[in-house]
# Entry
Amino acid sequence: MSGVDDRSVTVRVPAKVNVQLAVGGARPDGFHDLANVFLAVSLFDEVTVTPAARLTVTCAGPDAHQVPLDPTNLAARAATLLAERHGIAPDVHIHIAKDIPVAGGMAGGSADGAAALLACDALWGLRSTRAALLADCAELGSDVPFSLVGGAALGTGRGEQLTELPVGGNFHWVFAAADGGLSTPAVYGEFDRLNEGVRVPEPQASDALLDALRSGDPTALAGALSNDLQPAALSLRPSLRSTLDLGMSAGALAALVSGSGPTTAFLAKNAEAATEVAEALRTSGTCRTARVATSPAPGATIV
Ligand code: C5P
# Structure
């Protein structure tokens, strides 16, 4: 083949934590209205796309064996969606250098979807508008638009309608990956079951949380973190309680389930405290691995 095959585009994309996840009642389309405050954190995947004879996906990294390499991979779906929109063939090799733990709740799959979309758009010279890319991201999944945007944002609707938020400082986090997954639809289903007969209020962003983000004060943020899916995740996976407790006794300011779990997130007062919490979690036997990270982090970026 020609030298055109030497072209490639690489996009770096962050993981996320939900610092507030307010969940409303089930909608007729099966989704739930949310007030979902996303914060991007400094664990990154790098997605490289290169012209190829047909669409293929490879993955390298500590958890690579857990990543599906078939057409269900969100990065492959992103390339296919963009190609279909423009009437071209999605003939690319997608390589994912995966550093985001493969553990539900950190949006690692969504991150790869957003990164592949941005990378293919550049590789194919499509020059899609930001609005068009965000609409494609929303079609791929509720969390995918945020992976493109990064920083901090409030997601309304099913989480895909974003309003960017100011963040006044760096926050220090620890993420504990659990063994095995938790199905997102199952966690939302358990939320519905636990709330049967209850009038679930309209989800609303918390003013205290938005103020804490703006102030950059970790103690204020610790007091304002919330996740309406946490009782459902704990109901399906009671062992997460001991991970949360362990992190708190190791000095975390706050602990919560990240998104629909099973990843748990711990806010620390500084980098040193985060290192101590991570070390305690790693040696506790209550999780598979623990990683430190800071926030906010930039969204998907061509490198
Ligand atoms: O949009 P995404 O593919 O990430 O959603 C996965 C599943 O999570 C949905 O099929 C639905 O069961 C649940 N979900 C929901 N309400 C949302 C987002 C996701 O019920 N706002």
Observations:
- The pocket of cytidine-5'-monophosphate is lined by residues 30-32, 34, 141-143, 158-159, 184-185, 188 (CB under 6 Å).
- The chain has a mean pLDDT of 96.
